Amino acid sequence: MKYTTLCFIKKEDSILMLNREKKVWMGMWNVLGGKGIENEKPEECAIREIYEESGIKVKNISYHGMVTWEHNKIKFIDEPMYIFFSEIDKNYELKTPLKTPEGILDWKKIDWILNKDNIGVIKNIPIFLKDILYENKIFKYHFIWKNNTLKDYSKKACEMN
Description:
It holds the Pfam family NUDIX. Residues 1-134 form the Nudix hydrolase domain. This protein has a single domain (4-158), classed as Nucleoside Triphosphate Pyrophosphohydrolase. Helix content is 18%, strand content 45%. The protein has helices at 42-54, 110-114, 124-134; strands spanning 4-11, 14-20, 29-30, 32-35, 62-71, 74-87, 98-99, 103-109, 138-146, 149-158. Strands 1, 2, 3, 4, 5, 6, 7, 8, 9 and 10 form a ten-stranded mixed β-sheet that branches. The two termini are 22 Å apart. The mean pLDDT is 93.
C-alpha cells in the first residue's frame, strides 16, 4: 500500500518546518515527511524521513492520525498520510535556516504557524498542529482541495490504542 507521513518536530515553542523546493507545495511551509518504502511501517518511515531531511534522530514519536483527501475531484483514499509528532530536547542544536535538497529548514514559532493571517503555511498544517497540541485524541481526517485551495474538511476522533 502506498502512503506518506507528515512529521511534526517540536522544540520548546517552535516546530521544524520545510519550505519546499519542489512540488507538491513548492514555496509553502510544510512539516517533514515523505513516502513509505516497501515493507516499512509508517512509524519507521516517519523516523527515517525526519533523519533524512534534518539529520535529527528522534527517540520518541507518537501517532496522531490518518489523512485521506481529494484534489480536483480525484480521490486519494487508498494512499493515506499518517501524522506523527516528536518533541526534542531544548538543548538540541540544529542551526537554521538551513538549505537542503528538499528546501529550506527553519524553526517556526507555533503562534506564527497558527496565525490566521499566515498565508505561507499549507492550510491543513495548523489544523493538525492544534489537534496535536490541544487534543488528546487521534483523528481521521478527510480534506477536499481544488487547485491547491482547501475547500472543506472533516475529522472524526478514533479510538486510542
